[in-house]
Design a protein that fits this description.
- The chain is an alpha+beta fold and 124 residues long.
- It is 48% helix and 16% strand.
- It has four helices and three strands.
- A hairpin with a 5-residue loop joins strand 1 and strand 2.
- Helix 1 packs across helix 3.
- It is globular and about 60 Å long.
- The model has no long low-confidence stretch (mean pLDDT 88).
């Protein structure tokens, strides 16, 4: 049985709080298309790195980051009300490039793989 650290457990709770807050309490059009992918907390629980993703160009991604930074006070207030931590972690927002990388790899694989005229193996 794998044991999780306190930072992992608190990070998961902060993840849920931020995702719920975006969905239920915010109407900022820069933030609405954002999906929170993970929250990583330092071992001392003083810094939370919040990773997010969304579709769009670099300008949309930066606008979303600015919207998230602007909403950090609301996130902290909600986290404090629900978790009662000794220290409120600082929130850093980072774009999660995992989906972009996966799409790029898929695009490269499509370019490299030979094009088949038929998907039926009996036609070969």
């Amino acid at each position: 049985m794998q044991r999780y650290s306190r930072a992992d457990r608190v990070g998961q709770m902060i993840f849920q709080i931020i995702a719920d807050t975006i969905r239920q309490k915010l109407d900022d059009p820069r933030i609405l298309p954002v999906t929170i992918t993970q929250v990583r907390l330092t071992r001392d629980l003083r810094l939370a790195r919040v990773y997010y993703c969304l579709s769009g160009d670099a300008a949309a991604k930066e606008a979303a980051r600015q919207g998230l930074v602007g909403a950090a006070g609301l996130f902290k207030k909600t986290i404090d009300a629900e978790l009662h931590l000794r220290f409120m972690p600082d929130l850093e927002f980072h774009y999660d490039e995992t989906l972009d990388r996966a799409e790029r790899i898929e695009q490269i694989l499509k370019e490299v793989s030979p094009a088949h005229e038929s998907d039926d193996p009996e036609d070969s």
